């Protein structure tokens, strides 16, 4: 059966071999990590020259690597060779400075070091007692970042003017989807409690709201949280509000639901939507929600990082009146995946819905109420030491360097936007926010514009010299140019623009 032994060795032989197996032999750890670090160094030095989008077909990897698990040990160098020969050629290189698709997945030397150390320690910090340093580092990192964002003290766990512990709190999760899910569950339970509902009997009356530009994971999270799909309101947006949520329209929809006997429960406001980087007016949305007691969550996954800069902080104005906010440093704040920060104004609403208290996790510190066990602010129980890499990034670079990083990316995006506007073959579809430019080829001489723009994107991506993604805004097929890869410099943006112009000329002249 493949490479597995059909006649296993005797028990005695197996036991003798097992005694010699030392997976954490200190010399091996040093040797393997040194070789891995050399691989990472070589990768970052060469990634600019690699095709951003690989030219492989589905199933390619199984044809290059053996299909059955090996029965015998092999030198570590064999695995490293297979990574170089088989894995790297099949990678979409998000680290490439020629990556302009989706949103960036930023990284840094400090984050990599923090991730490495956390992985080596391999702690499972579900309770404070299970790892005090991991819990307290996460709280500290979240409080630091909250201060950089100038969030109100009501969201912080340990930082209050009086020096006492606040009612708010935070947790680092894997993704924005998780942040949405746990806050939806908390909002659901709070609404049911206010209604005096017996269990979840009243859940069919609960309604949730978001703009049609809100990330699709919101609607998925709503279903996972048990909301009736018929009660999930996707509110249309338009160019009149730059595709942001219209609070007047939101208020009308919520009032109509109340008149129909429904209960407005949760609103998701986005700061930096995926399609166009639209910004929902946080304060106005909170004002609209207030008469109904609806939970307001702010999804600032991408653009929240920019709000550490004073010139962008106004996008969070009104945040003191919302119930929760999340942002993802793994997108634009130099902290590798996965790292989504969630803050809530009343941590008890979250823990009341998510707390688990099995006998084997009970301990005096938890029982004292002096700590919040982070397992009770997430879906699962087990959790990684995510706080270390975020702390490492802030401790190593400081606010000044992080702000500089954001500003350089925004300046490069502004330069690209100016190039697009200066070429009359193109148009910028929505005003640029932050470091994303949404553009397209304008209609020319009966040209089918969607076909032309789709062809442009495909030709660009086939070159391997740039990678762009698309969206649809106002019924138009649009190319998204997202600046922000950690290795990106102005020359990469200019080179991409030159390539865009060249491929557009080929399309318009009918070249294949």
Topology:
Layout: H1 11-19, H2 26-46, H3 60-64, H4 76-87, H5 109-121, H6 132-148, E1 169-173, H7 176-195, E2 206-211, H8 216-224, E3 232-235, H9 247-259, E4 263-270, H10 282-289, E5 295-299, E6 324-327, H11 329-332, E7 340-344, H12 347-354, H13 364-368, H14 387-422, E8 426-428, E9 436-441, H15 449-463, E10 469-473, E11 476-482, H16 490-508
Parallel strand pairs: 2-3, 2-4, 4-5, 5-6
Antiparallel strand pairs: 1-7, 6-7, 8-9, 9-11, 10-11
Helix pairs in contact: 5-14, 6-14, 7-8, 7-12, 9-10, 14-16, 15-16
Quick tags:
512 residues; alpha/beta; 7-stranded mixed beta sheet; 4-stranded antiparallel beta sheet; 16 helices; 11 strands; disordered N terminus; carboxy-lyase activity; PyrdxlP-dep_Trfase; Aromatic_deC
Q: Can you walk me through this structure?
A:
By secondary structure, the chain is an alpha/beta fold. 42% of the residues lie in helices and 11% in strands. It is built from 16 helices and eleven strands. It has a seven-stranded mixed β-sheet, with helices on both faces. Strands 8-9-11-10 form a four-stranded antiparallel β-sheet. Strand 2 (206-211), helix 8 and strand 3 (232-235) form a beta-alpha-beta unit. The radius of gyration is 25 Å and the shape is globular.
Characterize this entry briefly.
One of its GO terms (biological process) is phenol-containing compound biosynthetic process. The chain has a 7-stranded mixed beta sheet with strand order 1-7-6-5-4-2-3, with helices on both faces. The chain has a 4-stranded antiparallel beta sheet with strand order 8-9-11-10.
């Amino acid at each position: 059966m493949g490479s597995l032994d059909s006649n296993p060795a005797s028990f005695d032989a197996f036991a003798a071999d097992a005694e010699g197996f030392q997976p954490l032999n200190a010399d091996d750890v040093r040797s393997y990590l040194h070789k891995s670090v050399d691989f990472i160094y070589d990768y970052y030095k060469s990634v600019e020259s690699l095709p951003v989008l690989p030219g492989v077909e589905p199933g390619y990897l199984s044809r290059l690597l053996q299909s059955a698990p090996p029965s015998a040990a092999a030198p570590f160098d064999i695995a490293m060779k297979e990574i170089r020969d088989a894995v790297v050629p099949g990678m979409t290189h998000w680290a490439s400075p020629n990556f302009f698709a989706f949103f960036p997945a930023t990284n840094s030397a400090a984050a990599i070091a923090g991730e490495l150390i956390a992985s080596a320690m391999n702690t499972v910090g579900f309770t404070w007692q299970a790892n005090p340093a991991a819990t307290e580092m996460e709280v500290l990192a979240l409080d630091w970042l909250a201060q950089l964002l100038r969030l109100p003290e009501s969201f912080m766990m340990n930082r209050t003017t009086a020096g006492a512990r606040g009612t708010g709190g935070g947790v680092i999760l894997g993704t924005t989807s998780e942040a949405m899910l746990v806050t939806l569950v908390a909002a659901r339970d709070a609404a049911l409690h206010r209604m005096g509902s017996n269990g979840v009997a009243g859940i069919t009356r609960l309604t949730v709201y978001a703009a049609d530009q809100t990330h699709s994971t919101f609607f998925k999270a709503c279903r996972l949280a048990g909301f009736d799909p018929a009660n999930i309101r996707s509110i249309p947006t338009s160019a009149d509000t730059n595709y942001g949520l219209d609070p007047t329209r939101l208020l009308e929809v919520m009032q109509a639901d109340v008149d129909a006997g429904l209960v407005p429960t949760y609103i998701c406001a986005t700061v930096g939507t995926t399609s166009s980087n639209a910004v929902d007016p946080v304060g106005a949305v909170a004002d609209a929600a207030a008469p109904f007691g609806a939970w307001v969550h702010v999804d600032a996954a991408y653009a929240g990082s920019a709000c550490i800069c004073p010139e962008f902080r106004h996008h969070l104005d009104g945040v003191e009146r919302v119930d929760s906010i999340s942002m993802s440093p793994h997108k634009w704040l130099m902290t590798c995946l996965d790292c989504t920060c969630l803050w809530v104004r009343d941590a008890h609403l979250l823990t009341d819905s998510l707390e688990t208290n099995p006998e084997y996790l009970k301990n005096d510190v938890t029982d004292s109420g002096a700590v919040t066990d982070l397992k009770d602010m997430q879906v699962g129980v087990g959790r990684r030491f995510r706080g270390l890499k975020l702390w490492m990034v802030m401790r190593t670079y400081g606010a000044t360097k992080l702000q500089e990083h954001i500003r350089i990316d925004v300046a490069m995006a502004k330069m690209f936007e100016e190039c697009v506007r200066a070429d009359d073959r193109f148009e910028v579809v929505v005003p640029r926010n932050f470091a994303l430019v949404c553009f397209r080829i304008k209609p020319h001489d009966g040209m089918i514009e969607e076909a032309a723009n789709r062809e442009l994107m495909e030709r660009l991506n086939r070159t391997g010299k740039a990678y762009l993604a698309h969206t649809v805004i106002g019924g138009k097929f649009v190319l998204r140019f997202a600046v922000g890869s950690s290795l990106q410099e102005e020359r990469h943006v200019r080179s991409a623009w030159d390539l865009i112009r060249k491929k557009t000329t080929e399309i318009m002249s009918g070249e294949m």
